[in-house]
Amino acid sequence: MTGLAILASGMVTSVGLNAPATCAAIRCGLDNNQETRFMDQSGEWISAAMVPLEQPWRGLAKLKHMVVSAIRECLSALDADIPTTMIPLFLCVAEENRPGRLQGLDAQFLNAVQDELGVTFHPQSTIIAEGRIGPVQAIWQMTAQQQAGYCIVAGVDSFLIASTLRAYEERMRLLTEQNSNGFIPGEAGAAVLVGRRDSGLMVRGIGFGREAAHIESEEPLRSDGLVKAINEALASAKLNNGDIDLKIFDANGEQYIFKEAALAKIRIFREPKKEFDIWHPAECTGEVGAATVPIMLGVALAASIKKYTPGNRILCHLSNDDGRRAAMVICSEITGVTNG
């Protein structure tokens, strides 16, 4: 039965201005964190994972240029005779309640991206303002659009905004000299080309959940939402918990995310495995919000093509600050090279 496959990826991150460079840096565990022009409350410069573009763009202009480059990289993997008007673009951005969120992340931003690319995408193209889990929701939507042979799922985000940094520092969630339990703010644009195939890096299962004890809640954490999302993804993929060989998740340096993932692992993965890798790309790219999933999938695609994954079955899981959780099971069934 024909399923959904990740066919190509594009990335613009602090460690690489395309997918091969970013994936190589992440494989080597490199970062490009540096001092910014922002100061924390103690007067120290805030470190961040900044994208070094050729011009000093800011705000929406920088978001546009990052995501356009990533989408263009995906489009280069398409056959020339496939019109973009047949390809929906799901453009994922920060959730609406994100502190310091830029104004203008709406339909006009989608139009600006198309204008910059010089193409028109399918009329079902849309903005998805759901943060980290947005790209998973986009791929889920693709499963219901049987008429679409391809889609592009893109994510772009930046935490390098004064009001955003101030809000997360006040909540003791930003990594500073005074707080070790926090994340490195980052920015990135990333995209994946998804198509209907019988082989490749296949999307085999998707699940969602909601956690009452989210990161800013005072409720006791049991990881119920993440457990539900992972179990749904495993059931959809018709796999048992012991079948998973690798986990890629959104750990960004905050203890809460590691604790939640550890609790979910204890409750779900009861069968011991001799080898079980855990990857977290944010260690290299910083916290990149809505761009997290396309980066994860691009890393998984590169690793599968070059055969340095510890196995073929990969679990990805994500968490939003409001408690929403998402998980995907992807399986490497690659018989040839795409855009590695």
Report what the structure shows.
The protein is an alpha/beta fold and 340 residues long. It folds into two domains: 3-197, Peroxisomal Thiolase, Chain A, domain 1 (3-Layer(aba) Sandwich), CATH 3.40.47; 201-333, Peroxisomal Thiolase, Chain A, domain 1 (3-Layer(aba) Sandwich), CATH 3.40.47. It is 31% helix and 25% strand. The chain is built from nine helices and twelve strands. The protein has helices at residues 19-28, 59-75, 107-117, 134-144, 162-170, 224-237, 255-268, 282-285, 292-306; strands at 3-12, 34-39, 45-48, 89-93, 126-129, 150-158, 187-197, 200-210, 246-249, 277-279, 313-319, 324-333. Strands 5-4-6-7-1-8-12-11-9-10 form a ten-stranded mixed sheet, sandwiched between helices. Helix 2 crosses helix 3 (107-117). Mean pLDDT is 94; it is low at 336-340.
Helical content (DSSP H or I, runs of 4+)? 25-40%
Number of strands: 12
Give start-end ranges of low-pLDDT stretches.
336-340
Number of helices: 9
Tell me the quaternary state.
single chain
What's the CATH topology name of the largest domain?
A: Peroxisomal Thiolase, Chain A, domain 1
Q: Please, what is the CATH homologous superfamily of the largest domain?
A: Thiolase/Chalcone synthase
The end-to-end span amounts to 25 Å
Order of helices and strands: EHEEHEHEHEHEEHEHEHHEE
Strand percentage lies at 15-25%
Radius of gyration: 19 Å
Named at the architecture level, the CATH assignment of the largest domain is 3-Layer(aba) Sandwich
Number of domains: 2
Sheet/helix structural class: alpha/beta
The largest sheet is: 10 strands, mixed
